[in-house]
Amino acid sequence: MYYKIKDNVLWRNEKNSFMILHPVSKKLMIFWKDISDFVSKWWIIDGFKLKDNVSIKYLIKESIVADYLIDFDINNHIFWSDNFVSAPLNVTIQITNRCNLQCGHCHKVDKWCVNIDKDRLITLIDELHEMKVFNINISWWEPLMYEWLSDVIKYIVSKWMKITMSTNLVLWDENMANTMHQLWVRQLHVSLDSSDETYHDHMRWHKGAYLTTIKNLAIIKKAGLTFTLVTTLVNQSIDDYSKIIDLSYKLWASWHKTNILVPQWQWKSIETWYYKDLNLFKSYIRVFLQKKKKYDKKMSVIWESMFMISIWENMDNKPDILKLWCPAGVLTCAITEKWNLLACPFYTELSMWNIYDDSFKDLWTKSVLLWKIRVCKENDGSWCQARAYWISKSIENNDPYIHKNVYDANNHDFYNNSAENRNDFISVVWHWIKIEWEKWNKEFYWLIHNYLMSSDLTLEIWTWTWIVPKTLGCLWKKIISIDFSDNMLKLAKENCSMYDNVLFMKEDIHALTFRDGNFDLIIKRLAPDDLWEIFRVLKFGWNFINFTNWERDWMELKELFWFPFHQSVSDYKSQLVKQWFEMIYEDEFEFKEIYNDFDILIKMLHIAPIIPDFLDREAYYIDKIKTEFDDTNCFVLTRHKYLVNAKK
Questions:
Q1: Is the entire prediction scored with pTM above 0.90?
Q2: Residues of the signal sequence (predicted)?
Q3: Which CATH superfamily is domain 90-391 in?
């Protein structure tokens, strides 16, 4: 059985992704290799290999494909997807630079008098349809001020393409909303700068803009149009930004999208707080991530179209064609009212070429600048390349306002979300450790989390594992992590370079250089002890948490090599009391680790300080352990841990 894709359906098969624009809902559906590998370059799907495939059944049900009788040699058809993106998924067309508002964050460069040439625009639409571009976004500045808007929309719809529109909504009324619905406009991008009427009107330089926009949102909703509320971050407060997203949900928005300024043209004159303070910028991201979770399955909360902050989760589950940091010049582009081709609408200072007298397809495939932009993405995925270009005037640099900080904020939210469900959190963080460890590490981090959030300064003793600062640095609390090894400190710094709130120092646990009562919290994990020094540098009334090995830990190796056993738990508790610590919480646990792979056991001995002189006498130890291993074909080790929380 073979299926033919119907003539009124726009589709492409590229980058292991079979893409179809639903002819009725205009939803872009992306199917993966399970379908794309069986779609020919023409319009035939090999159904013999997809007989029970759910996606094929859906396409049949939606009348997107139909049965097809092959009357020629099917072997002449190629069934695989192209490994490149032949055309953008979306093209933004800025049809006019006329506008009814004078927004403070608009990056206009000309007087408001230019409309795009209608006849040339119709020709461009034909070309985009031929290239199978799925969506045209009619944009900037206010599309309703373009006198041929209805004619252009009708023509786009006649080509079975999807159309979206960006608008400030001030000029809309009930008649306009119904007209747009009849013209098959289904999705609007509406700008909303604040939850505060005064601030929004100030940014728009138009008194009453806020109330008019709110009123017209109800009108377009009644007319059956869905909408995204778009907020451009300028200098809104963190609280206002949070309220804007909440307001969007109350106003029945399907999406809320956050844009941040790309300082080009007029935007360069705007002083933005978060460009001077990256910590403030991280705070915005944290709010975004909290709201994204809060409104999951209720309203989509996104950050700059297709950017990785919006699709960070489950990257392995994303279609190959969407695995891009920045879509500019690959999945999207823009054409201005003066026919300049831009890699994206925010790349205003770098035109790829003027396409009025040239073919869009030729420039899309042959532009040297576009190919340079695409190569940069393949090399390191430099996030918002327009913002990177503003900073360095080079398309090859990274964007410092997203490239690092999105990762940081994701870790912050990842930890906080998981702190609410610590089973999920620790099982992910410790996925490379034996399952028996999970319960005790969960408890360890649970204890730390309770105190760290109220701590101004925390000391972590012996950071050789770097696990603690890497896991907890995302809470943005000040942590000093110490170790006596230069190499261990170097490794820890490299692994935690994303956190400027963690300071690494070389210190001797027996002679700390910190003043008395310097720390609110002291954490020690698998580290040597000096209770006197710990007591000295800890503030009165504050907490010390220790997680370490005890007398029966690795007892099989101790018995094999006649090593002395560690002090007992009861002995340690006595020492804490003698040092004037008050016991708050304790837990003791024991479990077995089974090593069926001898090489893994030896690797563990290389990295864990179990046998003090293992590296010096490696051959001796390995030979003796191997004898024991060969007898049973496995090695069972007892692990004995003790977790204690004491207060000064």
A1: no
A2: none
A3: Aldolase class I (3.20.20.70)
